[in-house]
Amino acid sequence: MGVGGIAIYPTNTYERSFGIFAAFVALMTFSTLVSKMTSLMSSLNKLKDEETEQFRLLRRYLIYNDIPLHLSQRIIRFLQHGYRIRNEALSAGNHLPILDLLSQSLQGCEGLLLMWISIGY
User: Fold this and answer.
1) What transmembrane ranges does the database entry give (predicted)?
2) Whole-prediction pTM
């Protein structure tokens, strides 16, 4: 094993054992790091795929039920905005379980409520 341009060689069994142990620990640490990164990327891809599937099904539903194009676009934009706000709130840890008790119409205003909470009202 060497560092930079200097070659360092073990001279006895203890140094050789330490070198093998250090190389093994480095290998395990690097493998764990790569595994975690792969797992995180896979989770992100799964979340994105779920979002894409939900909006694909929504578009299909709107077309199937002959919803006018202008109204369909407004619905999709509104839901995309709500989806983004919800994901930002969840990732920031701003989800308050008590807000689940609000009526459906008031839950539509949850993004506004979360904005007020974040600026300190």
Assistant:
1) 18-38
2) 0.55
pLDDT (tens, 9 = 90+) of the chain, 121 residues, equals: 555 567 778 899 999 999 999 999 999 999 999 999 999 999 989 989 999 999 999 999 999 999 999 999 999 998 888 888 877 776 666 666 666 776 777 666 655 555 555 554 4
Say which DSSP state 109 is in. Answer: T
d(CA 72, CA 4): 62
Secondary structure of 83-103 as H, E, C letters:
HHHHHHHHHCCCCCHHHHHCC
